[in-house]
Structures are given as C-alpha cells and as structure tokens.
Amino acid sequence: MSKKFKVSRRAFLRTAGVGTGAVVFGSYLTPSLQAQGLIHNLIYGFPVDDIPVVLLKLNGDVVIITHRSEMGQGTRSTLAAVLADEMEADWKRVTLKQADADGAKYAVAFPAEVPASHERLPFPYEPIIETRKPKLQYLVPPEGSQFTDSSRSVTAYFQVMQIYGTGLRLALIRAAAKKWGVHEEDCRAEKHVVYGPNGQSIGYRWLLLGAKKEKPTYEEIVKAIEKRKEKRYIGKGKEPMPFYDALDMVRGKTEYGADVSVPGMLTAMIERCPVANGALVSYDAAPALAIEGVRAVLPMFPPGVRGGGVGRAFTPHAGVAVIATNTWAAWQGRRALRPTIKWDVGPHGTYDSAAFRKELEDSTSRPGKSVRRLNDVDGAFGQAAGGTVEARYYVPHLAQTPMEPPVAVALFQGGRMEVWAPTQSPDVTQFSVGAVALGIDCALDDTECQERARKAATVHVTMLGGGFGRKSKPDYVIEAAMLAKQMPGTPIRVQWTREDDVKFSYYNAASSQYLKASLGADKRPNAILQRSALTSFFGTIFPNSSTPGLAETQVAASQKARSEFVGSGVYPYASGIERAQGLEDMPYDVPNIRLENCPAENHIRVGWMRSVANIYHSFAINSFANEMAIAAGRDPKDYLLDLIGRDRILDEKLMTTETVERFRNNELPMTPIAAPVVEGGKDNQVVAGYPPDTSRLRAVIDQVARDSGWSDKVAQYKNMKGRGLGIAAHRSFLSYVAIVVDASLNAANELTIHDVYGAIHCGLAVNRDRVMAQMEGGIVYGLSIALLGEITAKNGAVVQNNFDDYPVLRMYQTPRIHVSIVDNNDPPTGVGEPPTPAVAPALANAIVAAGGPRIREIPFNKAITVL
Amino acid sequence: MPAFQLNVNGRMHAVNVDGNMPLLWVLRDILGLKGTKFGCGVAQCGACTVHLDGRAARSCITDVGVAALSKIKTIEGLSYDGSHPCQKMWVELGVPQCGFCQPGQIMTAAALLDEHPHANDEQIDAYMSGNICRCGTYPRIKDAIRRLAGSATS
Predict the structure, then answer these.
(1) Within the 111-140 window of chain B, which residues sit less than 8 Å (CB to CB) from chain A?
(2) CB of B38 within 8 Å of any CB in chain A?
(3) pLDDT above 90 for A639
(4) How much is the pLDDT for A682?
(5) Same domain, yes or no: B59 and B106
(6) Mind listing the pLDDT tens digit for each residue in A210-259?
C-alpha cells in the first residue's frame, strides 16, 4: 500500500504559513530533519517552527487551525479544545480557523528507526518493530490527514493535539521560570497565565519571545501529559468541552458550502443523465436561454462522450448545465432545458433493483470466495443434533441525504482552480479539481500526476451541512470546476436540488446475506456459514468489466491497480475494507466457521454511508444470532453473550492478511511499512492496532442490559401481548456498541418504538457530550435506515425523488433514547458511525419479541406499519 | 419584472424579481440573508422556515408575491445576539450537530411557543415533525422545547 503513496519530500520543505501578527517559532532543526515530519520533530525537540495547527498572535490570542472537516460530529471543537486544554489556554482567547486542503501539512510521521530511548511512543503511535534503515514512517499520511471519514479524527489526532498543547505550555512555563529565576517545577500555568512560587504571575503574551527559544523534548512532553491528571475539558474534565460553533449555528451565521458568496458568482444547475455512464446525444439551449437571468447553457461533456458512473471514480455524470445570475433562474432554465435533452443511457440502462436483488440472492446461493475458514463447516452441518437455522437477509441501496445538498463554488483563473466546498475529502478534491485546471486526468493510483494537480488548486473547506459519507465523493466539486474551466474568471456555483441528491448519490451497497448454522445438542451452534454479496465501492471507483468503452487490457490494468490500492479482491468481489466491517471479524466463538464473499456487479454509483458495510453485516449477523437464540429457546441476551464467548482478542490468523490490516487499525490514516517484517518465520504487521476484543463487546452488552432493565422487562413483557425487547451488539470503527430496543406492535400491525438504549465503549470519551450526541444521532439514523430506507432503480435510473418518497425519521417517530458510555482510559476510538449498525437488528429482534414477524429485509415498513 | 416591497426583520427592501420566485431564493440570493436554508424545495424538510406575520412558513414554496403581503422574520431577525430563549436553550443543551437545519428548527419552535407557551408533547410533535434533522438531534430539540414550555418530564 505505501508504495502506492509515494510522497515527495518537497511537501515538507516549506516555510511556515503564518499570518500577520503571528509569532513564528524559530527553527532549530536541520533541514533534513525538518523534512521528516512532525512527530519526528517532536521526538527531537519542541517547539517546531511549523506547528501546523496553532498560531500565537502577538497579543497572546490563540488561533487553532482545524484541519478535519466538521459535519456535525464535533471534531472541530474537540481537537481544538484538546490542544487548548493541554496548553492551558483561555478558551475566550481562542479562535478557530478552518484549514484549506494541504494534506502534507497535517500529516503525522516518525522515523521507523526510533532512538533507543524512545522505543515506546505513546500508543497508538507505537511501532511494533524496528527496521535497520532509518526511514520516514507515516502514521497519518498526507493524503489521509484531512480525509474525514471512518470515524477517525479523534483516534488519529487526539495525542497529536495533546503533544502540541503540552509542548507549548512547557515552553511558556519555562520562559516564565527563566524570567523569574525560579525552577520551572515550581511554576504552573492556568488559563493563559503562568504562576510562580512567590505569588508571581505573567500572561502568556509576555512570554512569547522567551518561549520561542525553548525546546521541551518529546520525553518531557510525554511525562508532562501523564503528570497533568486533571484535565479541564478532556474526558470527565472540570468543565464541559466548549462547542465553538453553537452560537453561530443557532443564529444562522455559520457559513456552510451553500452560503459561500464570491463576487461575480453565477449559479449553475445541472440536468444529468439519469443512468450511470450515460452520454449526451443532443440538447437545445434556446428555451433555457430565454429565461431571464440565464447566462449560458453548457454541456458537462461533449455529445457522445460517456460521463461518470460505474468504474469512473468521481467523474460526474453526463449532463447539461444552466448557468444563471441566481439559483431560481438556473432552476427555471433547467426546467425549460429538460425536455430538449436526448440521452444515450448506455449499458446500465436496464438496471432494475428487483431483478438485481434476485441476482444477489442467486449469488449467495452458491459458494463464494472463502475469506475466513475455521475447521470443517460441511462436516459439522451433518451433525446438527440441535437442528439447523438458515436465513437470508437483504438490504437495498441507501442514500445519505445530508440536510445540505451537494454544492460547491469554483473559480478558474490564471491556470489555477480555486474552490469552496463542503467536503469530507479535501485532498482528493484538491488533486481532482487541479486536474481539471490542467486539463489532465489523474488515475487514483497515479501519485505523480496527483502531485502536479495539487499544485494547480486551492481548496477552501467550508462547514458541512451534514456529510454521512456523501461529501467524501467530490463529484459535485468537480462539476463546478469543469464549468469554471469553461468560463475563466467567473466564479461558478453548482447547486444540487434534493432530487439531484437522491438520484445521484454514491449509494450504500445493496447486499444479500445468507447464513446457516447447525446447533449442537447444547443448542449452541457448532458451525456457521455466512455468504456476503455486496456491490463494492471499488467497483465504482476503479474501471472494471462493466465500465463501457474500455479495452480488456485497460480493465486488467485497472484491476491490478485496484488490487494493489486496496489490497484485496478484484471486481466483482468486495474489498478488504468492506469485508473487515462485520464479516471477517464476526466475533462468535464457534468451532467451525466459513465466511464467503460472493460476487456482485455494479450498475450504479456505490459509495460510503455512515457505517457502510457494517449496516448489512450487522443486520444479518445480529438478526441471525437472535434467530438461533429463539431456535435454542434461550434468552436472546444470554445467548448473545454465550455466542461471543470468553474474553479474548480475536484470533487474526483466521482472517485474510488485508482484512487484518483493515480491521486492526480500521483504515486509520496509518500506512504500514511497505514490506511486512518476518520474525521467527512469522509475518508481523507493523502498525499497532486495535484488534477486536470480545471483553469490550461483552461490556457494552452488560451495560445496555442493566440500563434497559433487560431481565425484569423480559419477564414482564412475557405476560403482555404485543410488546418486546430486542438486542444487538456490533464492533465498528474500533468502538463497541450495544443497542436494546423496546417496541410494541398492535393488532393492526402498527409499530411503536418506546425506548432505545445504547451503550458505547470508545476508549476515552474525549468529548463526552458529543459522544452522547453521536449516539443519539446515530441511533436516529439507524432507525431511519431500518424503518424507511430504500433506494431502487428502474431502467437504470433511481426511482425516488425527495423526502416524500425517500422518507427519513421525523420527531414524532423518534423514541426516547438513553445512552451510556462505558468509561475507560484506553486510547479513543470512533464515535461518528459505530452507533448505527446495531440499531436495525435490535429493532427487528424487538419486533419478533413483540409477537411480530421476523423481518429479514430493510426497510421494515414493507412488513409492518410505520406510522 | 415587478417590484416588491418586502418587510424583512423590520426593514423594508425593494426587490425586482419574478413574482413566482420563492421567498427562500429572494432571501438568500437577492438579500444575502443566508441563515434560511435550502433543504428540499418542496416543503418536506423545514430548513427554510421563516415567520410570516408570526406564523411558521416554508419559504421554499412561498412565492415572493405572497410573502410581500406579510411581515417576514428570518433567523437573523429572531435576535441579533442569540438571546431568543430558543437560541439560548439550544446552546445550553448543545442541540446542534452540523447545525444546518437548526435555523429552521428554531423558527418553527419559536412559532410553536408563541402559539402554545406551554406546549405539550403532542403539540411539540405536531409542530416539529415538519422539520427534518439528518444528524438526529430530535431528542435534544424536544428536550429544549419542553424546558421552555415548562413541560419537561421523564
């Protein structure tokens, strides 16, 4: 993988980009050491000349640069507050500034050969092995440093922020101690002031020049972090963690992508080919141009040229844009244009969800590629003393629908592209729009090309009105850039409608899951077979056999690139990433296991949606656990604990190598050293990870059982008609969540969800209130999926339009939600996505307990009435 | 194009636009009041909620010609400093996540509380269910309104 991510050293040889009035800490490092990145600098001393996330102004005010995208998960305030906490900054003097795309600037690296005295870097920045050759090892590589997905901002940057903040505090204290001629151990800092042993005090602003000369070492910093037990905001701090943007948000002052205004800006709306990889045949611009305010009508691609879709990464669909002086004029112009367009829909024009579901189910009816195998499943199936349980589950495509539909502004001037966009992927956006500026096409694995393209683009990241994975795909930003390229000097804003958002998402995969288990005499399964078919994201990203207009050799080359890029199966099989999300890491303690991945083709754009492959994997396996419990006549919660079995770290030897990499570090922006090191004949993975730990899964189940009063209620509901509890538990994004749903079903088959209980183990809950908020929101999101979520295609085009026919949960449907955090001081793990996967199966299980049907497909409103 | 006199947040604005232009786009594109959000365009999500003569209305389907007959209040006019009780409670409870839908949520909630100062749960659900939040802040929105209505329970 890392050989695909070659990064020039140029990126690190740059001057500190600080604004007027800022103190620039002087460099004391040699250029060659500077070139080795941030953590490296920290190992050899502190402060560095280019702490990329903080500026100290001459008046003592602190500007913290927030480099991760903020879409509601709270990372912007959280990481800044961690730095401010450790720095003992006065939050009233802190302002936040959102960073432009600059992946290299926020990369975190350390040399693979760590000096003997620093053998143990704080977990998770802990190299398991050392190599002989000193070499730069990225933990957060440049292209991943701002990529805000996989619930990993705090996981990856918590300690980095602690290190920066503490280093600054130590430097300031040391400067004060020298000024006063006292021991620094006798001084302490609090809210922008250093206090001395004899009643002295001095504000930070008067210490800046002195602090600049100080170089606390990495060891001193680590020691100081450990010593400062009492945190102001972090975890169970003295004060609630600040929420920087809240006041602006409630006043309508926050600037989202949709709110960006650039002088001279025109607004474009695009009528797109409804089918992936379609092409424009013809159109008539005249009716649109007749609308007052319409300035231009431009095709996205010339007639006959196939637009984006399957196998074309982030290339936009074919389309025709109407560009006008305001949004409404563009909208009206688009309406006038629509009937004049003729499309060539191409090979995906027959895609039909009902037929495709059958294809997926046929696929899981046949043996697939074995991805995990333990002993002899077929043999054990022959000895099913306690009976056999068999089930097939289905989850359709789903659309993320963030409240802010995709939108972006682009300006092409002087050969460069400048864009403003609510994006989860600043780096991909940067090289993608840079490529548009240069008129080149960079393959996803062509790092040299990307490097050139980055130089041609500036990306201003705005606040996101929701993301949920939709805004990690920059197709809508590329659209703005493509139009701006055609109108140099004019800023072009592309505004999507909700219908555009519903019809042109990168949909969560449609998936069929088949499970079979044989129960032993003790009613525990002695064998489990699971077959998973899913439309892989990488079928959309990399050209494949279903991408029109490609020669066989091109397809082969692309599949080779895909295989190297994601380290996994080629089209039409799933990637290691998708298999690591709830398939290969199945936590059940069963003597015979076979997990298979079955092929599934792509006929529509597929992408991530909050918790991704965990959605269908967790729905299937947690529903199936419940089906086994019922077959065994056992309490579902006890049976689940029994299935998970004793406390242990899941044996990774059972899994494919690439999946182990994925699920140990959950695609953290950490790149393993290129070649695994062989020790004693055994391959060692080189990045410290977070392997699945069943004791944590059990802990959240125990917690949620206590919170929900499981045992008492189960007994109580036994004598009631139509009410029941359901439970499910799932590990994802390194965190563990268990959900209990309390629901009832009346004689008319109408569902009421009374309460949902959730417990999470996410390591140290750095920002407790936002962890709670993510649990609440993730549960609501999960209920939306379970009850209502369905995107279907007919004749290659998405059928649904807006929130009327793609409904999402509303307040009156929202139950009481009760959340618990299982407290611990382990390194923090994800919270944005983990709350969602266990919700649908817990609800399905509750419906069965309430006397309702076993629902094996999403959305549930097909089987029961959702009021 | 006809000229309309709009009373927005107590100030008069003359706008020359097509009378069918939805108030939403007049506010956002012509008057530069960006606090009112576009979420669906068909009155399904409530992100564009404003007050017309004190009552909650979806500006995405309200023609400017119709809106001109009423006093219009947007989130910017609810208070300049976030001192409206809803805004204060929203901040206190940490209601927003991405925040995009919250101006619309707050405008609906403010209208609800004007009409029903002691709104009960049924009234809260009835009023607020036209406003979608994909981040799932409903429990906290409900909590905030209950507290303001003095009906906080459970």
Answers:
(1) 124-126, 128-140
(2) yes
(3) yes
(4) 35
(5) no
(6) 887 787 876 788 789 889 999 999 999 999 999 999 999 999 999 999 99
If asked whether residues B34 and B93 sit together in one domain, one would say no
Residue B154 lies in a domain: no
B109 within some domain: yes
The residue among B34, B55, B76 that closes a domain is B76
> Residue A678 has what pLDDT?
33
Tokens of B131: 């406003």
Domains in chain A (CATH in brackets) are: 14-251 (3.30.365.10), 257-346+406-495 (3.30.365.10), 364-399+507-536+572-672+690-866 (3.30.365.10)
Query: Distance from A692 to chain B by nearest Cα, in Å?
Result: 28
User: Which range has the worst mean pLDDT, A127-136, A354-363, A415-424, A448-457?
Assistant: A127-136
Stretch A431-455: mean pLDDT, rounded? 91
Residue type, A273: C
Residue range of the domain that includes B129: 85-149
Which residue, B76, B110, B133, sits at the end of a domain? Answer: B76
- Whether the CB of A446 is below 8 Å from some CB of chain B: the reply is no
Number of domains in chain B: 2
Contact criterion met (CB below 8 Å) for A242 and A91 = yes
Cβ neighbours of B96 in A, within 8 Å: 72, 243, 245-246, 249-250
Provide ipTM, 2 decimals: 0.98
Please give the Cα distance from A578 to A535 (Å, whole number). 10
Query: pLDDT class for A568, splitting at 50, 70, 90?
Result: low
For residue A229, give every residue at least 6 positions away whose Cβ sits within 8 Å of its Cβ, in sequence order, or none: none
Q: Is residue A73 within 8 Å of A831, Cβ to Cβ? A: yes
Least confident interval from A25-29, A133-137, A551-555:
A25-29
Q: Which residues share a beta bridge with A593?
A: A374, A528
Same domain, B30 and B70: yes
Annotate A787-806 with DSSP letters as a single string. Answer: HH--B-EETTEE---STTTS
Q: Is residue A722 within 8 Å of residue A744, measured between CB atoms?
A: yes
Cβ(B34)–Cβ(A259) below 8 Å:
yes
B63 in contact with A, Cβ within 8 Å: no
Kindly determine whether residue B44 and residue A258, on different chains, have CB atoms separated by under 8 Å: no
Does residue A748 sit at the B interface (CB-CB below 8 Å)?
Answer: no
Judgement on whether residues B37 and B17 belong to the same structural domain of the protein:
yes
User: Testing the interface with B: which of A77, A249, A752 to mutate, by most B Cβ within 10 A?
Assistant: A249
